[in-house]
């Protein structure tokens, strides 16, 4: 997301935060989460509407009125006003309006999960499904194929996951499968995992290892990464026997192998002793 869009999204987050759990009822937050995700999906399908709502040359008040004209009576007053406020804002490109509404809807879902004590589980389940999709081209093609009925693709998800995942996880997966908006499925899922990590003010690190780590090794690696990046690190581990050097760690856009990580940690310790 580009600069001006980030500023608008930050302002929207502040407004929505007042209606999270502790300020509004869980039922209200859950409804708004679903409605914002549904509007993001609508804007993914209706490109003309999306462009009109994000048209920088149009009057902001007029864009907000358009949002209300489309949504009033179809979603709650609160959700309609959030979308109208988004339409009043400035966006670097129209697609980022849909991206922002999706982020807000997902963040509301994560707020509910946090309140229920299930955020860790939801984040881990989304990560595992993302890795499953990444490693299974046939599954990825089937779930991403717009030529297949959406209900059929969602039904496949239900068959694969059933009641083995949290209800919040399944709702977010259902949304993503129906609203890729030109993205790769695993990339859209990774975006959700990153949002969940941000909810806990953690940095997400993905470690791909040749051999499964013991719990002690995972804790040690997370601690080293925490010192290197000077923040709390949430570690997700993927086992891939083809990995050279034993471990490859990805933090955001940065990729480092185990030997580099070891040298960085040694340098940090040496500097600390000066």
From TrEMBL:
GO CC list: plasma membrane; proton-transporting ATP synthase complex
Gene3D superfamilies (UniProt xref): N-terminal domain of the delta subunit of the F1F0-ATP synthase
Subcellular compartments: Cell membrane; Membrane
Membrane topology: Peripheral membrane protein
Matching SUPFAM superfamilies: N-terminal domain of the delta subunit of the F1F0-ATP synthase
An annotated Gene Ontology molecular function: proton-transporting ATP synthase activity, rotational mechanism
Record keywords, A-Z: ATP synthesis, Cell membrane, CF(1), Hydrogen ion transport, Ion transport, Membrane, Transport
Major localization class: membrane
A Pfam match: OSCP
PROSITE patterns found in the cross-reference section: ATPASE_DELTA
InterPro entries hit by this protein: ATP_synth_OSCP/delta_N_sf, ATPase_OSCP/d_CS, ATPase_OSCP/dsu
Top-rank taxon: Bacteria
Described purpose of this protein according to its UniProt entry: F(1)F(0) ATP synthase produces ATP from ADP in the presence of a proton or sodium gradient. F-type ATPases consist of two structural domains, F(1) containing the extramembraneous catalytic core and F(0) containing the membrane proton channel, linked together by a central stalk and a peripheral stalk. During catalysis, ATP synthesis in the catalytic domain of F(1) is coupled via a rotary mechanism of the central stalk subunits to proton translocation.
Similarity comment: Belongs to the ATPase delta chain family.
Annotated protein name in UniProt: ATP synthase subunit delta
Classification lineage: Bacteria, Bacillati, Actinomycetota, Actinomycetes, Motilibacterales
């Amino acid at each position: 997301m580009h600069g001006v869009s980030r500023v608008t999204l930050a302002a929207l987050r502040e407004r929505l935060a007042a209606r999270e759990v502790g300020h509004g009822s869980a039922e209200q937050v859950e409804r708004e989460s679903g409605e914002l995700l549904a509007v993001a999906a609508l804007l993914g399908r209706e490109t003309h509407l999306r462009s009109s709502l994000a048209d920088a040359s149009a009057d902001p008040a007029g864009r907000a009125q358009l949002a209300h004209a489309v949504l009033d009576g179809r979603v709650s007053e609160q959700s309609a006003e959030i979308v109208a406020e988004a339409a009043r804002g400035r966006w670097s490109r129209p697609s980022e309006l849909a991206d922002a509404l999706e982020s807000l809807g997902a963040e509301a879902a994560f707020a509910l999960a946090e309140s229920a004590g299930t955020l860790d589980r939801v984040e881990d389940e989304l990560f595992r499904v993302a890795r499953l999709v990444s490693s299974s081209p046939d599954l990825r093609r089937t779930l991403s194929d717009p030529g297949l009925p959406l209900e059929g693709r969602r039904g496949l998800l239900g068959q694969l996951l059933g009641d083995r995942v949290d209800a919040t996880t399944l709702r977010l997966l259902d949304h993503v499968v129906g609203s890729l908006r030109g993205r790769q499925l695993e990339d859209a899922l990774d975006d959700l995992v990153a949002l969940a990590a941000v909810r806990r003010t953690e940095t997400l690190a993905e470690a791909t290892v040749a051999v499964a780590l013991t719990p002690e090794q995972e804790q040690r690696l997370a601690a080293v990464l925490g010192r290197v990046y000077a923040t709390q690190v949430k570690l997700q581990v993927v086992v891939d026997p083809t990995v050279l050097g034993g471990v490859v760690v990805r933090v955001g856009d940065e990729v480092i192998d185990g030997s580099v990580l070891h040298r960085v940690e040694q340098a940090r310790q040496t500097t600390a002793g000066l």
